[in-house]
Amino acid sequence: MRYLPVEEAECHVVTLTNPGVVAEGIRADGTGVTHLGMRGNRDLGAVPRLVRVIRAGGFDLVHTHLYRACVYGRIAARLAGVPAVVATEHSLGDSQIEGRPLSAGTRALYRVTERMGAGTAAVSATVAQRLRDWGVAEDRIRLVPNGIEPARFRHDPAVRAAVRERLGLSPADYAVAGVGRLVPAKRFDLLVRAAAANPGTFLLLAGTGPERGNLLRLAADLGAADRVAVMSSEDGGPDVPGVLAAADLFVSPSPEEAFGLAVVEALAAGLPVLYAACPAIEDLPPCDAPGASRVGGDPGKLAAAIGRQRRAGPVRLAVPAAVEHYHIAHTADRVLALYASALASARKK
Q: What is the pLDDT of residues 296-330, one digit of tens each?
């Protein structure tokens, strides 16, 4: 939202549940945030509460994100009489969406409510194809890739030294980073096993989620508890740019991704990258991200790839073309174009 011109778009955010640090950051930037206090997926009382918020705001357009918000948000926006509704699909995988199996019921509810809006933005060409496979009409899909602020991740040797000292790493220690929600689908257990199989290699996991305890127990069982650290800025740990600055290699072990934002952030930090799946990179020519290599999700193959990178020695790479391709300013331009199209269509009705 920082890149949406205020003279063209005055924004307000509604979070259904768990606003957390993201909401705090949005408020700090001067955008209002309303927490709806939704108690669960079947809290149908959230619909009239959301309708009241939307009506009170007098909004010209509602933009929904993620499965539950898309379902509830589209319905509420329609009931509130909002002229234009769009959605962004961030997380549709081949077998699940945000941890939900792709059942017939999940698909049916998605498709019925999808028709209540002007269209859906797919964050990657891979997601666009998955939407088509789900039966969403081609003319209702727009490609609007995710974006990052490259300057936020630019490598800073001083930050590297400070974070490594804070984490107890010596200048000679080799550190591998992983970033993301600590949930089973991300398969950080594979990364813990691969790091444990490389003596002297340290693993820095940045994220929160229900798998945190399991990952730490796994590290202990493998005799690598002193080489695996799980941290989050929410808990007072280094932020993601700091973790990337401290690392020598980035690994994304998730076999199913909708985009792969953390991979792009790691490339912006000048890190070599190993990934199991990353549409953000796979949708571009190989020359746009020469520092990124695909590796199988098998722990043995991943461990071997980490070992090869470590033997090659730490290196900071030039920021590749992929990073500029996914600059958040380009994303903002595409979002504004999507809004303009949706509003123009609404005026014709």
A: 878 899 999 999 999 999 999 999 999 999 999 99
Q: Answer yes or no: is 3 within a domain.
A: no
In terms of C-beta density within 10 A (0-12 exposed, 13-18 middle, 19 or more buried), how is residue 81 classed? exposed
**CATH code of residue 184:** 3.40.50.2000
Q: Do the Cβ atoms of 92 and 226 come closer than 8 Å?
A: no
pLDDT digits (tens, 9 = 90+) for 188-211: 999 999 999 999 999 999 999 999
Q: How many Cβ atoms from other residues are within 10 Å of residue 24's Cβ? A: 12
Within a domain: residue 338? yes
Q: Where are the alpha helices (DSSP H) in the chain?
A: 20-28, 46-57, 67-80, 104-114, 125-133, 150-153, 157-167, 188-196, 212-221, 240-246, 261-268, 279-282, 299-312, 321-325, 328-348
Locate 325 and state its tokens: 């391709």
Same domain, residue pair 123 and 96? yes
Do 260 and 274 have their domain in common? yes
Query: How close are the terminal C-alpha atoms of the chain, in Å?
Result: 28
Give me 62's structure tokens.
């509602």
Quote the tokens at residue 258: 């909708």
Parent domain of 341: 12-147+327-348
